[in-house]
Amino acid sequence: MVSLNYFLILAAILFSLGVIGFVMKRNLITMFMSIELMLNSVNLTFVAFSRHINSLSGQIFVFFVMVIAAAEAAVGLAIIVALYRNRESLSVDEVDRMKL
Amino acid sequence: MQTVLFFIFASIAVAAAINMLIQKHPIHSALSLIVVMAMLSIFYVMLYAEFLAVVQVIVYAGAIMVLFVFVIMLLNPKEGEHRPRPNRFLLLGGVPLGLCLLIEMALLIKQSPLGEGEGGTRLVGTTEAVGRLLFTDYLLPFEFISVLILIAILGAVVLTKREL
Question: Structure pTM?
Fold first, then answer.
């Protein structure tokens, strides 16, 4: 049987890969996908703990996190589309001014 | 046997996540992220969370990532065009910091006594069990979430209109 530690370390690895991707990449869409990777690693932590402490509340929280991630993806991608229409660039270095 | 399978799928998930960061074009990153989602669904099945495994494939890999792929195809970003290159040191400094974060988390996980042990009868996350909990104990967050989805729909529609 796989103990809890293995799942937690895997979730930690995925989370830090998401952090590295968010900090390093300059493309807006790839930064967004790193955020989704971070959310997924947190979901894995929730489910692993839910199995370990024998309670289904962790899985309910994962359900809510998935719904929030879906809403966030929809609105965030709408913002990216609107931004691309204005600035014609997806690089985060070129959209760093609020001035049009 | 289950440990061997866990390590196989875990290495595929980590390899796909690293591939997501390495690729230049966002579409390849999106496809690698779909692989990560599928591996996570396998882990949910391994942790007896069957409802979440199916929801993960349907919602995450089947709706959110498809939305990402649609937006990437719509915007059609070029691979690595002539944009101002920031300081190379700043970019590559992210990897050691991320590794520091990982080592910190791994040390915290290792020294906690929670992690060992398995066994005994445990709850299985069937659809009935999760649904029963969702509609009795967690009814209020459920209603709020539905309002939040409505707000997200309205926001996405308003933000992408050409003229308001």
Answer: 0.90
